[in-house]
Write a structure and sequence with these properties.
Helices cover 33% and strands 34% of the residues. The chain is of the alpha+beta class. The chain has one domain. It has a four-stranded antiparallel sheet with strand order 1-2-3-4. A hairpin with a 2-residue loop joins strand 1 and strand 2. The mean pLDDT is 94.
């Protein structure tokens, strides 16, 4: 899936130190608790990640359809 590959290429090359840095690359990223939510493929999918800014590591927790994300089960 090309949109997910595109997200990966950008995230891998990123040097994010804070949420503002994420918004430079992904202007529509949302921040829910400890998680960063990325819209993939025109908001068809949501990628839920934990960004460890101090270590420059992104942990992908879920890749969900918009409907799956809306149900909120990923928060548990």
């Amino acid at each position: 899936m090309e949109p997910l590959r595109r997200w990966y290429r950008i995230a891998k090359a990123a040097d994010w130190s804070n949420p503002a840095d994420v918004r430079v690359d992904f202007g529509n990223a949302d921040f829910v608790g400890d998680f960063t939510i990325f819209n993939i493929a025109g908001n068809k999918y949501r990628l839920v990640a934990l960004v460890a800014y101090q270590y420059h590591i992104v942990y992908v927790r879920h890749v969900l359809t918009h409907d799956e994300y809306s149900k909120g089960k990923w928060k548990v």
